[in-house]
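Re: [help] complex structure
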Amino acid sequence: MSDYKDTLLLPQTAFPMKANLKQREPEMLKFWETIGAYERMVAAGDPDDTYVLHDGPPYANGHIHMGTALNKVLKDIVVKSRNMQGQTAHYVPGWDCHGLPIEHKVEQELKKKNKELDTLTIRKICRSYAAKWLDVQRGEFKRLGVLGTWDAPYMTMDPQYEAATARELGRFMERDGVVRGKKPIYWCCDCRTALAEAEVEYEDHKSPSIYVRFPMADPKARELADLDVNRLFILIWTTTPWTIPDNMAVAVHPEFDYVVVEAGGDFYVLAEGLLEDCAAKFGWTDHNVLATVKGAQLEGLKAKHPIYDRQSPVVLADYVTLETGTGCVHTAPGHGREDFETGLKYGLEVYSPMNDRGEFLPEVEHFAGLNVWGANPKVIEKLEELGNLMTSRQIAHSYPHCWRCKQPVIFRATTQWFIGMDENDLRTRALDAIRNKVQWIPAWGEERIHSMIASRPDWCISRQRNWGVPISALICEECDETWFDAKWVYAICEKYATHETGCDYWFEAPIEDLVPAGLTCSKCGGSHWKRETDILDVWFDSGTSYAAVVERRAETRFPADLYLEGSDQHRGWFHSSLLASVGTRDLPPYRAVLTHGYVVDADGRKMSKSIGNVIAPQEIIDKFGAEILRMWVSASNYQEDIRISDETLNRLVDAYRRIRNTCRYLLSNLNDFDPANRVAVADLLPLDRYALDMVARRHAAIGQAYVKYEFHKVYHTLHNLCVVDLSSFYLDIIKDRLYVEEQGGLKRRSAQTVLWQTLLMLLEDMAPVLSFTAEEAFQTLPEAIKADLDQTDTVFALRFAPDEVNLPADERARWDMLATVRGEVNKAIEPKRKDRVIGKSLDAHVTLHATEAVRELVAAEDLDAREFFIVSKITLADVADLAADTPIGVFVAEDVKDLKIAVEPAPGVKCERCWRISEDLGTDPAHPAACPRCTAVLKTLV
RNA sequence: GGGCCUAUAGCUCAGUUGGUUAGAGCGCACGCCUGAUAAGCGUGAGGUCGAUAGUUCAAAUCUAUCUAGGCCCA
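Output below.
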């Protein structure tokens, strides 16, 4: 009996069922490296049809996390799919190397060793620190199976890059887009240095809490109520009395209700909601409300400074709250972020008359020479003396401190460099670009970035730090006036580009090498210059990558087709790149911007160390393999936040096995196939033609999904193809033919022709996502199939053109109907299986009581119905002949009208070769246990 | 507090311009097979669409509010 098994053509392949990804992936990476898979992939495309995905540079600090892994895999899918669809798409990865986090880290290390170092040494250490992490991340990205020019990435600390960044600043200078202005920043009086947001630590601190009244002898105030304006005051509250000398305004909320109250013979303006709270604090007992007005009505009233003889107008601001205080906010534009913004709006002076130590300058009456902490009690004293102090006490609250010296810090206005949003209509042009020149994916990105650009203040591009690209400008030693010139900047940029450590040149060069001969200060006529020591905001670094990379590298061109980053980059890289490019090129740097969401845990919460729900890419690679991580990326809808959990991953592992096995089965049934023996579409068995059409349709859908960046559709379509169309339908049906029929016969070759094309389409569709597996299968292709291909180096250079089927719609409808009937037959068999009458479907004799239409379909000459339904006998009968009451045991179809199905054991004996039950076994004495079909095949074998 | 976004079966996703009993695959349950075998096949049970209130003859699909969550600001 087992003799017959040897006469069958059973599947055979070296492609293992078990993936063993953990071990095989690193081998595959080595293989790709050896053969130059990336180069071959890119070389296989049309050199005139380029596609540029420009990589946003991750920060070269720390290991990669799920977010960066997601981002890089998405980019890899884009790049691979574009190449495999015939375009030429290079991938030049980059890194963001400058900036505070690295400098901070390095400084912390140095502090431990009690070292204070000069700029150049700090820069040197930062440089090697960034290089170290760049290398680590490069290894981690490569491990994910991402292909690109890993040996020649771009980095913002590269001399050429630094020169390009500095040059872009020169371009802004050339267009008069750069302005100098005051801005309040965190300042440590102890370290005498500016601090970044990240360098400030909040700790408890005791501060005075004072309520102050500002006289408001504005005649216009009579409109509020019938009162004596000489006795009218507006009340404020503050915990920084030392900023009172620099007060320039009082802010109220336009929509809050404010009251005018009479108390102790005076009149006060304050928020209605805080009246009782204040009355209690001031000891008011018999106050009464004279009027209630909206904050907006107070705008423009002229209050007077409580100490000095100058005005302090009432202004409007949205950030005013009713939590504490009076609802009227003391506003000193030189000492607060919001105060500063309000100051800009109302044209208030940014007044901050103090030195690096936080000491008031001589011009400040009453407080000259005092530092801010010393000034606090003196200011209170003075207010009391003038009768404008309502009450004073001490409170403990959270207050910013310097991370280095742990001393409390202050907000202090300093001179900074800005890209003006309204210089050269930058804002207008950027907004126009957002609306008209860029495709935002998803579409809401447009609204998001538009509103950000519409409302943002000037871009402060200067930082008082060491690790970055210097702002190339000179400062007059005598009068502090700055000097710069675009041509001069360009010349210096040439030095950066050729200097071994780039713009270290700026800090190393003797000053006389930098200063143009005979340069004199336009303000004071002086001729002694020092270099500007501020560096550029790192967002300016990365924001100029279009100039440093996209325009300059041979692999890319300006503008890029796509920028692809997380949704936080609407404020970050998309934003800075747009402003820089529009400001210097009048064009956005990208044609389309795609954003993805954040990786969150199973419950949709963000990953954080404190919650302990962080999953590292490495964990997934170790447990499942990078392939599963890639699959997770494609299975998820990245436009929303993406959840990841063990359940999700386990489901994906199941799906992976299914896809892998489908590949394996296709490979194993093609081991004896030679494309030279392919069957032309016209000669294919109708079922096979239908199957090929079906696969081609799925293939086209997947191609479309790739183009539209809808990768989760790729995954779902791919999975459905393998599971529904192939595994449980087509492959199951044609098993009989593949195993049993004559090896070189049409029936078998017809099926194999379809399997062969299916496999190659499948591999193409898989490769951008399931790169490791697609390559593994590609390398395992039977020799004859390989011989037929243009190349066999790598799956990424596979460009297979399947036969065109274009099945007529009615033919497709016919098969769809048959498939539905097949489903009904399966349902009909099921109860018999429960009754143990039927085991496998081949045991069955099925009688279809059907309409003429269905009977014609099933009886069609070009359909092997027994094969199609995988049963041993089929009988057709007119449903009308069946008794009106359906006999017991006959199944009534659910999805096909007038179809009733009877199932019984097939008569006859099982053919030992094909396992079909036959009523005429042994027609040939030589093969007593074989059916006529098998007998015929057996005869050809001798 | 503001801007933008999300919320459909255990999981991952579909649900066209509002219109018959809300779909798919996986997982699960039960069964079959042992010639894809640490595979393969079949059948079945699971959602009333985050909540509430509206608009409408009719809403998962439109509006408002709320809840939970995310990004970016403050």
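The first helix of chain A runs from residue 2 to 5.
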